[in-house]
Design a protein that fits this description.
Four copies of one chain form a homotetramer. The first copy, chain A, is an alpha/beta fold. Chain A has helices spanning 13-28, 33-40, 44-56, 66-71, 126-142, 182-189, 199-209, 270-273, 275-285, 294-306, 310-334, 349-352, 354-363, 382-407, and strands spanning 30-31, 60-64, 79-83, 89-95, 99-106, 111-118, 151-158, 161-163, 168-171, 194-198, 219-224, 228-234, 237-238, 338-343, 373-378. Chain A is globular, with a radius of gyration of 23 Å.
Chain lengths: 408, 408, 408, 408
């Protein structure tokens, strides 16, 4: 995709209205024009003009209203609008430790196919990662008889510190280099626009669109996999900070001169609760933990704790207490309506336990009002990829609407 | 003031435009219509209509443009608009430990008079505090030959956990009771609408309008007086959290099972850096600190540290390190453009020192991009009151514009 | 007493044997010569010679054996020996926070009279303290119709860092000056030899002679009153360290950069468990604790904890955990047979609880052998004074035996 | 060796005198009878009788006095006594991580030969370790044309918790089993009496006999190799505690709920300063540290710190500070005359640095008297073995003297 297609300024008022209308239709599934006007605050006349343009561009289509059909109503059947799923094919990719998770969705947001691929290694040079992603896209499109060039937009999520608006990776555990203009590198190789973000932000996006946060304007997602991450949604928007360095939940300091973190600093939350933090304790004190692979050693730790081994318990217990303290800090700063603990879960029950949530509630500022709701959302790797696709969908929609404006 | 004057829903589009126009004019000092159109994105025709209404209502007035006057220009003199200072008298009050700071500003934002008053005690029943505020307003208006009933709006700032939109105090160190509907109590006693908020938020408002954050949309103010507070501004708006319990900087936990805080919990930042935290250490180990009053004992501590007393130094040094860690946590979560350390300063240099700022920079997530700017803003008690007045000014302007709509 | 009476070198063999014989008799109450020979390993002939000397000097006397009397035995009645109580009057003094506890015992070790006296203040100049002690001795001897000059030796215990063999006080909370040659000052004022030691060592001496450690050669006493202290007995002897600065249990560091101690250092155990440490936490967070006197505030804290107040509980709970950790450190270093927790007890149950002892056992090096026995010994202030008297008794006995040698 | 040769009770007076005489002669190198009498306090007549017996038994021999020879003195040449080196061959073995260090000394204490051998693995079953030791003894004796059966006594030092008087190993990192009656197992396999002790105690013994503590009655040795250990000498005797679980310097707790130790407990000093503690931090944060072997990774860490790498420095710096705190605790408890830091040194300068010693001095109880002297003694693995041999030498001498008594 040519960089110049991404318009320099913000969208104009008409473009914003068109995009809003598409998103209202997509969220609703199908909806009548009059209901669109009501939901958006745009006048019925303008809605009629906009939807006419969108139908002309093939982005939406008219259908007989469900309501009309089911009521077997007399008189003229009501007409509803829906997004044309076939209008665009959108891809989402999550880069994990050694693996890629990919998903394709249509323009309606329906999942078409999922695919997992091996990466060339756990930490890669940017060009190697780019080629791995291309190979993954070739593979997933082949599964449904399409080609990579058919994809209208690609969302990519990876761990690390990322300036999403710039498509710039300050640092990622998946890359061998710092300061990579990764979006541009991907767009130079791939035939579609690319939308890059921190993976926890994409989980927040997924929770907002498909998950536990539908209809909630202010919430926080804490992701738990090998490490911990955070996505902050304020007033419906992902909060990213000035340089893309906000929401660094794993690097909140919870102890002066505390345990050493992978980042080289002391006392980060991650240095107490992430997999490496657990393993470096287990490795010195649990004979059973000296297995060959990380996942086997972790599994041995979890099993030992479950079986009542005191040392294993103390490892998980301290992680739980530190995690609760980290969560309490987030509540003390954001006072959100909702916190979602989001992850594959596996055996990491010690971070999702009632004890953690209860300890967190004990450590927040106490007022005579209910504390934030905490939801636990267990799901697999595909959720990350789906969040990436949802993020790309926003971008694809915006570009499609703009093209409409330019063509007009 | 009758509650019904505060309209139930959000403002309509026209009201929003009018308010925006007033604020653009106030910020500019004086400004031509065409420049208003450009700054607001409102069409010139609409600007003309709006300003006509505002002039009719006495909120703004025409003046000969400075530019025209100074250029001695030929032809028709350009006309500019300015806010009519005399249109409204607005009051701000900061409730401190035993004292009230009051300020009156005109509708242009110019300070007319300041006044300090004694409170009946450091912690008061809500009705006593209300009467103390009324007495303070009577005194400050008397100073300029006006009466309390002339005030169009009152902003009140106090420490504690406050739900500003509801005017509700969950808890404040200045009140003997929890869960006080303080705004309603004040409005029942006073003849003007009242706008209540946490004092650190009002400092943020003051920094935004008159201070170091003019023109910055995303910043954080950390206030340092007897304790530490925080105001968060995101996208130009004060961020308050769901229940008014956000931005609790002093209650971020910095140590598991750490020092006991006044709030009854362990490890809060305040339990390491606030005056009481310093004093409880000084009181057991510094003979010189056993003076009669808190401020004398603090002064003795600061002097001893300055004179190189090892124990005094270690007290301030640990506070500095904990404070730096708290600041780093804020940066790791918000990644703001700007942090303002704001306070009277006095001898609390150990919290403003280069060492603190440098330690904070070492503890934030390291990327190859400049860290947030840190500004130090030293000012006295009147700044708090002025922030309260600024907050009230927003409300007064909104109400004036609405009345205009209703009258129309 | 003239300094020259304290002989420069160690005692000679004969003196040692004589002293040993006196102590065997005193411990036994009464005992036959043949049993003395067996217990001391001294030959019967030598025992006969020694006891003859001691009887001649009036230190011991012959009595009809209890055994002979009770068995109504035929034949020649067996003769036993006992210490002549009237031979010497020995005094013990414990210097506390504002008060003196005094006791007089006879040469048999029987308590004759106890007395409490006010001190001129909590911290005194050495000469003031000396005169207060003289006044106390005058008062206690008057109670039994004697005078201070009748006392053969005085034991003095006070808190602080004391070089007992030198009679030198490095530092004591009871004195306004450091580095005081207190024994010499007292002996210049008083008519008897003075034996000075750290108060916790004297409790160890009391436990060894009258308490829970009779017959135990290696044990540790931990004293709990306003602070914590320790006396170490190795191979029957009090272990004092090179400069009298050993056994500083309260100043073991349990936290790097931890809470500030009265001594000006950070992380001392005392800074977590002593009365001042509890109070400085209670004072900021428990409204009920803001009473007028230390003991009332402490009482309020203990009551609140007992009533289930969460904050009060957390104050005592952390003290308990730190104390257990300190005890575990002592066990990990000394591996003693017995630990005695010794104090007035009052409401300080949180330091004597089963939880503390169990936590301590969890934190010592784990071997498949029983951990040290822990005994709790509750007693009042007079125990300290009695320990001081016991310490003086040793000295008086040694001097009496030497005088015998010189006279011989 | 038959167990019954180790007499049940303590030694009798005559045996004690004989042993004392041998040791005085050995320490002196050579010494006249009259000087022996003076040093031991035994009468000249008794010295003459004892030395006659010892010469008859071949344990000592007469030599012309050095003094006589060098002074070219007139008259009858003075006769001195020296220990007959050939009287006994004594072996010392130190069990390390995968290797054995062996040494043979003669009865004079002169080193004859040293030898290093591989162990079958780092952790061994007791019978495998026993056979490895036998193989090592066969090898070292072969080097000088002798056989294992020629050895009169074997000292064995290994890390762990050891009851030396019982020859019992509660736990050792070198053994796969707990609770091993290792001395008896070794004596069942080997033809000589075996003397077993914790390795740090043997270093203390070596320091006392050959090293920095000659002539010092009260001192503490802190050993630094992969972990830290401690030997305590009080009144000339190694202090071992009741169950052999004393002097556990590495398991002093320095942090409540701190880092996990190999022992399964939290907050042990070892968990901050030992090699494994450094490596588990380096492994997550220093790319260079991910080398293949422990020693290479350690070397990389030390080099990086030396080169100024901030993360490497923080790893060593925290270890230094914790170590200083541990040393201060020892001083606060023992107040010794002398502390010896004893090890191979290598690159572990961060534990021997002036900063450590200075920090330790800042953290001990402050009195106006000089703090304990700290000496640093750098030496290699053979010192451990030599300490083991010295320990065996005491036992061999005692047995030789007893045999003399039995034969008499």
């Amino acid at each position: 995709m040519a960089r110049q297609e991404r318009p320099p300024g913000g969208p104009d008022q008409r473009g914003m209205n068109r995009q809003q209308v598409v998103e209202v239709i997509r969220n609703a599934g199908q909806i009548a024009r009059i209901d669109i006007a009501q939901k958006t605050g745009v006048s019925p006349a303008t809605v009629t003009a906009i939807t006419s343009d969108l139908i002309g561009a093939g982005l939406i289509e008219e259908v007989a209203s469900d309501e009309a059909r089911t009521s077997g109503g007399r008189g003229r059947p009501r007409v509803a609008l829906r997004v044309r799923g076939a209008a665009h094919l959108v891809a989402g990719v999550k880069v994990s430790f050694g693996t890629l998770s990919l998903v394709l969705i249509d323009f309606e947001g329906t999942t078409i196919v999922e695919h997992d691929a091996e990466l060339s290694g756990p930490r890669l040079a940017p060009d190697v990662l780019s080629r791995d992603i291309l190979r993954g896209l070739d593979a997933i499109t082949a599964k449904i008889g399409r080609v990579t060039a058919d994809i209208s937009g690609l969302g990519v999520g990876l761990a690390g510190t990322i300036n999403a608006p710039e498509g710039f990776v300050h640092w990622s555990p998946s890359l061998t280099e710092r300061n990579v203009q990764l979006r541009d590198m991907l767009e130079a190789l791939l035939p579609m626009p690319v939308f890059l973000d921190n993976d926890a932000n994409l989980v927040a996006k997924a929770e907002q669109l498909f998950g536990e946060a539908r209809g909630v304007s202010d919430f926080i997602v804490v992701t738990i996999e090998q490490g911990v991450g955070m996505g902050i949604v304020i007033d419906g928007q992902i909060y990213r900070g000035t340089r893309g360095c906000g929401a660094e939940f794993g690097h909140i300091k919870v102890h002066l001169d505390g345990a050493l973190c992978r980042c080289g600093q002391r006392g980060c939350l991650e240095a107490y609760v992430s997999d490496y933090a657990l393993l470096r304790e287990a490795d010195v004190s649990l004979p059973v933990a000296a297995g060959p692979s990380r996942s086997e050693r972790l599994e041995a730790l979890f099993s030992a704790a479950h079986a009542g081994d005191h040392t294993a318990e103390t490892i998980l217990d301290r992680a739980s207490r530190m995690f609760a303290m980290g969560l309490a800090n987030i509540v003390n700063i954001f006072d959100p309506k909702l916190i979602i603990l989001s992850g594959e879960r596996m055996s990491r029950d010690f971070l999702y336990s009632d004890d953690v949530i209860s300890a967190m509630r004990d450590e927040v500022v106490q007022v005579d009002a209910p504390p934030p709701e905490v939801k636990i959302h267990k799901w697999g790797d595909s959720m990350w990829a789906k969040g990436a696709a949802a993020y790309a969908m926003e971008g694809v929609t915006e570009l499609a609407v703009r093209r409409l404006a330019i063509d007009a």
